[in-house]
Model the fold of this input.
Amino acid sequence: MRRWTIDAGVVAVSGALTWLRLTSTAVAPDDRGADAVAYVLCAAMVLALSARGRWPAVVLSVVGGLFLLYHVLRYPGGAPAVPVWVALYSVAVAPRRRVGLAVAALFIALDAQGRTAVAGVGVLDATLDSSTVVFVAALLLGEVVRGRRARLALLAAERDRAAERQLADERLRIARELHDVTAHTLAVVGVQASVARDVLDDDPAQARAALDAVRRASREAMVELRAAVGVLRDGLPAQPQPLAPGLDRLPLLAAETGAVLVCDGEPRALPRAVEAAAYRIVQEAVANAIRHARAGRIEIGLGYRPDGLSLTVRDDGRNPAGPPGNGLRGMTERAVGLGGWLRAGPSDGGGFEVQGWLPR
Done:
């Protein structure tokens, strides 16, 4: 609809200007006055512009041919030049324009040759410059507009690619969060449920504490899962989301999973991104040790250094078989994303070990 409206407006304005020029142009002694044939030729040129969007080269051929015929019949001056300007501009601005530019070059050459023959002057005579210059200017204007449209299209495509990359990154982040939360919760539930089963008859209080830990882990997991699913469903969180857990949660994680936490250096607050990544890496490593390695002892080591934080999670379980899974890939991506590194593999004394470094 918008394209049709623009074309109709161009035809209307071109027709009005052509009619105005045709009725006001002085008639030279050797020229014919504007009659019905002249008006029909001009009307045909103007109406041909309605197809300039689909067939610019064809429109220029028709308009240019009628323009030359108009002058061959000795009608006054360049009255119907307006449709020619529009047709030349349309050829230059078109996406596919090789044929159109060839037609434009032929038209300009024929127009210049015809006017030199009629006027009896050379091609470079100053009296012929104005018409040719205006024709070339119409082509150049189309080239400028075409270049601007191409730049805008490139910018729009780049914005789309950036939005797609951002969406992919967000999906990857959410996938990591879902994986980590699920794996950790299942590990805690498994450990605490085993504790509750073993001491249910001998120590009901400890069994209740274990079940409370299961309930607490499940409740926290539900909060985090609900937030992640809300982002996937709605795109934006409906309410402020809780901060990602930091290093202050590690003692609770160690207590729930039976791991041993060892700190080296003076504990201090680190950037929130570093603490969140460190917690998720340790959480996933501990969950892997419980679920896959069947570890009896898990040791978590934190090394506070002036320029960052070192992480070590070591267990005495069996080495996992097969290629690295999503958990190890997610831990590595978290560390590398902050400019650090992470390595995982069998430890020297048996079992499995995860080592990482996060710069502050």
Q: What stands out?
A: The longest strand covers residues 298-305.
